[in-house]
Amino acid sequence: MFDAYAMAFKKDQRTVDMVKSTIQQNPNIDMTSFNLKLINQKNWEKSPGSDSLISLFGDFTQQDEQYLYIAPSQPSGPITFQDFIKDDKTVIVDLSISNDYAKQIFLAFLIVSKIIHFIKNAETTEYHAKIITIPHIDIFFESFFIDRKSDYGKINKFLDPLKEKGFGFIFSANQAHYLHANLINYFENFVAFNTRNKRDIAALSNFMNMQELEGIGYYFRSRNKTYQIPYMMSLKNNEALVKRSDIYQVFPVLVNWEKLEKTALMDKDLIITYMEKQGYDLKDAETKLLEQIKKTLFEKDLGAYSIFTQEIKQFLETIRTIDQIGSLYEKKIKKELKTVIYPKASRHLGSKVEVKRTRDEIFQILIKQGYLVENHPKTAGGSESIRTSYSVGPQYNKALEDEFESDYSIETLESDSGTPFEFSSQDQPRNFIVQEKNLRKAIAREFSTFYFELFTIYEYIEHMEYKNALRVEQNIIHRFLVELYKQYYNVENVESENLLNTFIDTIVEEPKIPFSKKEIQDFLGRYSTIDFDHINLEEKAIE
What we know:
Helix content is 52%, strand content 6%. The strands form four sheets. Strands 5-6-7 form a three-stranded antiparallel sheet, with no helix packed on it. The chain has a two-stranded antiparallel ribbon with strand order 1-2. Strands 3-4 form a two-stranded parallel ribbon. The relative contact order is 0.06.
C-alpha cells in the first residue's frame, strides 16, 4: 500500500515512513475518525504526510465502507480483491468516485498490491490469471520520479509477481515520454495513436523501433527522418501504428469504426435478463448500491464530523425542549455540546484541547447550516444591548425527515427483495454511557428512543400513513434490544445473534420485567419481515 501511495503521489521515503507510522499507531481507527484526528492536529504536531492524507481520505471518508458492493441472489456485501480473480469472468472496477487521476491510479494499484500478496502463497487452483488493464500508467511509473529516487525496483516489485503467475497487462498512457525505460522492457506489443508532441514522438520511435527510411539516395538528407513519424503525426481518429512481437516492422492499421457505430447496443432490459442468467440481479444491486452510498443531510452538512451525528441529535433534542425559555447563550450551549460529544471525542482525539476545538467547529457548522438560529427575546428594545440566544432551527427537522426516509427505504428494499432483514449494529454509536451491567439504568436510557419511535408510529397512523408506520414498526423490538445490549455491557456492537439471545435470558430474569422469553421472541419474529404488497396496511399498522 505504501509503495502505491509513494508512486501515485510522488512522495519521498521520509514522508512515506511518517505516513506508515501514523497509520500503524492507529490500526483500529475508522477512516472518518482518523481523518478527523488529522484535521484537529496542531500545525506543529502534523507530519509532512498529514495534509496529503487529509486530502486523500477527503474523497472517500463518507463512502469508504459502501465503495464496492455486489448483490446477486444474496444480501449485498463488500467485494474483496479475491473476488476479482476467483473466476474467469471479466471484472470492471469503476474508480470514478474521485475525478483525480492520481487518486484513481492509487486505488487501482492498491487492488493490484492486494492481489500480489494473495497469489504469492495461494495455490494455482485458488485464482485465475487474468489480463489487468490500467489507464494513465504514465502517472504511476513516471521516469523523472523513479530516476530522481533511483528506485527502479518499484517497477519490478509490482509487475514481476504477476508476470510469474501468468497475469498479463494492458497499459495506456497519455504522454509516452513519461514512461520509464524499465517499464517498456516488460512489453513487446505497442499501439500508437496520433501525436504531435516531440518528446512523445522520440519515445515512441525508440519503443517501436521505427527504422524504415525514406529518400532517393542512401545518404540523402531526408533519410535522417523516418517515414513513420510524419505518418504518425497525421493519423486520423480511426488509424493507428502497431508494433507486434512477431513482426519486426511497424505497420499501420485501420479501425473499422463504421461497424462499431452500426452495432446496436443491448437494450437495458436485455442486459438485466442476461445478467440474471449469470447469477447477478443488476436492478436490485443498483438500487441497493445507490441507497447505501447516498449521503443523508446530516452527513452532507456535518462533513468530517458526521461521526457525531447521534450525539448532535441528542444535543439538539435537549436544546429544543428548553429553547422557548430563552437564555441559551453561546457559552451555555457550547458547554452542553461538549458534554454530549465528550465520551466519543475523548476516545478518538488525543487531548482535551482537541475535543474543545472539535466542539467549536461543530458549533460553527450548526449555526452555518441552520441547525441553530438566533432567538432574541421579543421584548428587547432597539437600543437595548442583549446577548445572543439560540434555538433549534428548521434544518434539524429537514435532516430528521431525510434520515428517516433514507434508513427505512433500505429496510424496505431488503424486505421487498425477499431477503430477511438483518439489523446491523456495527458503528451505531450509543447515545449514553452507563454503568456496566446496570439493567435498570440501561432501560431508562433507551426507553426515550423507544417511546419516540412509538409516538412516530401513532402520528403516522393518525395521518393514515400506514406504510410509513409499518416501516418504523419493522424490527422496532430488535433495535431496542440491540441498543439495550450495548448500554448494558458498555460495548459498541453486538457480535452475533447468539449473544443477543443470551442477553434476553438475562432480561427476563429481572423480577420486574413482565415478559417471558417466548413472548419477546414472538415479538421479534412478528415484525422482523413485513410484506408491504400482500397485506392490509391499515390493519397491520394498528395491530
